[in-house]
Records
---
Amino acid sequence: EMPLDDAEQEMRSWIEARPDSAARELAEAVRSGALPMMALHALTFAGPEAEHEVRAMLDIPELRPQAQLWLVGNGFDDSASLSP
């Protein structure tokens, strides 16, 4: 319920406190269904490990569209990779 800039700063702080596990923990939150879109957005700040975690979500039918959009939106795939 906080402004986006403040929420993103909180995400960054949380990630910085967990340099070795943040991407994995956020990916688990996405897969668990507890605020999946917020966790997916937070992965944007989780560094290079996030790409691997999001690519693994491509194998989950319910998460595939969001994972594809995340990969394109963060420059890891071209928009041509999106299904029609």
Note: The chain has a mean pLDDT of 93.
---
Amino acid sequence: MNSRAEPEILRPAATHHLSNAHLDALEEETIFILREVAAAFERPALLFSGGKDSLVLLKCAEKAFVGRDGAAGGGRIPYPLLMIDTGHNFPEVTDFRDARAKELQAELIVRNVEDSMARGTVRLAHPGESRNVHQSVTLLEAIDEFRFDALIGGARRDEEKARAKERIFS
């Protein structure tokens, strides 16, 4: 007789299951919002880090403006992609970012925390401090430089309690 208990197979609760129809509806709503932002604002930008959240958002923007597999839409994303670079990205991430922007013929704007440090607007407490917390300074500088009036960013609700109440955006 085996004294070790068999591992329990974890299955998602029925209430947590999302059907494809539900996901399709959320995608359609996202595409609608992306198009509305393009129509309603003069200088919007899509925040693009190359991470999973921004990749999903970029794919939705591609579907909204370029079309699925280039078949429908036939245009380009009408606002720039903006990346605030901490300087701690893997080269593969920045290479992929650049290739994806080029493939979509999207304008890519990259601003670096390192440049903010050189200007003295960002000061690290010590050399090993994470630059992630200082990205907001560089972001505000980019907003001012380019006069952006709307920013679109992707973020998962489960990663931050303040986002948990949001359905689509804030």
Note: The mean pLDDT is 84.
---
Amino acid sequence: MNDAELLREFVRNHSDAAFAGLVKNHVNLVYSAALRMVRDAALAEDVTQSVFIQLAQKAPTLREGNALPGWLYRVTHCQAANAVRSEQTRRRLETEATMQTQPEDNTSWK
């Protein structure tokens, strides 16, 4: 089955096999694009998972004839950008929290 047939089967019958076929056909594209963008294997796996979750949610709204790889790449780009921003924010907040919890140089402790 091609992508259009698999997508149609998934939308009409909620077929796990059809969705698994879509994932199998495109997981390498999505993961490699995510890895190039986020430069972290674990984060790229998270991005890949979120892309396919979004595919499952948005499948009924995808128009017939749209190129699925292009849609997946665009979603991967957005999800990767969000992941990088979230990771930067998390690191900044952790650094700030560490700075706040470190004791100040107080001469009365000497």
Note: The radius of gyration is 21 Å.
